[in-house]
Write a structure and sequence with these properties.
This protein is α/β, with parallel strands linked by helices. Helices cover 38% and strands 15% of the residues. The chain contains 13 helices and 9 strands. Helix 8 links the parallel strand 6 and strand 7. Bound molecules: N-carbamoyl-L-aspartate (NCD). The site of N-carbamoyl-L-aspartate (NCD) has 12 residues, from helix 3 and helix 7.
């Protein structure tokens, strides 16, 4: 796949060759990320970091990655501080903002908003989360982390647990896993927030073995990778429904020691709320903070590919 000048809206755009290219480049970013090697390849470039929904890691990592490559960042956060509160449309907002930068990273509460942004922007747009839709850079760093933790994807069992209805990270990761052979995904969620049926169908059509259960203990028992997610409170119209589901799944050391394979990798896109207890943090398989760090490498590599700078770098 050719990344140059392309917006990154969905993981559907990726093929195995593209992923391998991205991951190989991400490995080469480590020395720059650690400041062992200074790099100014994006000198003179501006990233527009426009987040209309809460973010800690994705925004900070997206900005840091751009700066480590010598670029500069304009950052805007929160609909209440934008002209959207005055009634400006998303399309007009994008038309104006794309003229302030060379590439945009955008987060917005509505599914499909990133696609609209790409339509109205002359500059490449990277989707940093469109409501319950997708979160491609997160899924890429998740996949990268699974490999970095020494796991194979082919032939593996991955348990995705929690809010699989609203969780954009699991939507994107599950779609990426379709590219690999002989993958088994166990969807562990209460019925109300199970993986969308169309997505399960797409996975099965691609040859992924999908099983659904509402039992955390049963779901994680044979998993090589356990991917926990929080219940996405902000996506619930009925807060009583959230209250019923919140706290349903809690992974802690006791549960892991009793029910999981000894070398299972534990992942979480973060932020965690109450589904992942801190007594897990010292376990060798607890990968979630390493996972967050890997985002820097993936985003650096993605900028270089999208801005077509790889040949000039090496
Ligand atoms: C996730 C998100 O925003 O979708 N966080 C992240 O980007 N790492 C997960 C979440 O908010 O639960």
């Amino acid at each position: 796949m050719d990344f140059a000048g392309k917006s990154i809206i969905s993981v559907d755009q990726f093929d195995l060759e593209g992923i391998e290219k991205l991951f190989a480049l991400a490995h080469r970013m480590r020395k720059i990320e650690q400041r062992e090697v200074r790099c100014q390849i994006l000198g003179g470039y501006i990233l527009g970091s426009y987040f209309w929904e809460a973010s800690t890691r994705t925004q900070a990592s997206s900005e840091m990655a751009f700066m480590r490559l010598g670029g500069e960042v304009i950052s805007k956060t929160g609909i209440p501080f934008s002209s959207m509160v005055k009634g400006e449309t998303w399309a007009d907002t994008v038309r104006v903002l794309q003229a302030t930068c060379d590439i945009l990273v955008v987060r917005h509460p509505e599914k499909g908003s990133a696609e609209i942004a790409a339509k109205y922007s002359k500059k490449p747009v990277i989707n940093a989360g469109d409501g319950p839709g997708e979160h491609p850079t997160q899924a890429l760093l998740d996949l990268f982390t699974i490999f970095e933790e020494g796991k194979q994807i082919e032939g593996s069992t991955i348990a995705m647990c929690g809010d699989l209805k609203h969780g954009r990270t699991v939507h994107s990761l599950a779609k990426l896993l379709r590219l690999y052979k002989n993958v088994r995904i166990i969807c562990v969620a209460p019925l109300e927030i199970q993986m969308p049926i169309e997505l399960v169908q797409q996975l099965q059509d691609a040859g992924v073995q999908v099983e659904c259960t509402d039992s955390l203990e049963r779901g994680i028992a044979h998993a090589d990778v356990i991917y926990m997610t929080r219940i996405q409170k902000e996506r619930f119209e009925d807060i009583a429904a959230y209250d019923r589901l919140n706290g349903m799944y809690v992974l802690n050391r006791r549960v892991v020691e009793q029910h999981c394979k000894p070398n299972a990798t534990i992942m979480h896109p973060l932020p965690r709320v109450n589904e992942l207890e801190t007594d897990l943090d010292d376990l060798p398989g607890a990968a979630y903070f390493r996972q967050a760090e890997n985002g820097n490498l993936i985003r650096m590599a993605l900028y270089l590919l999208v801005l077509d700078k790889v040949r000039k770098l090496f």
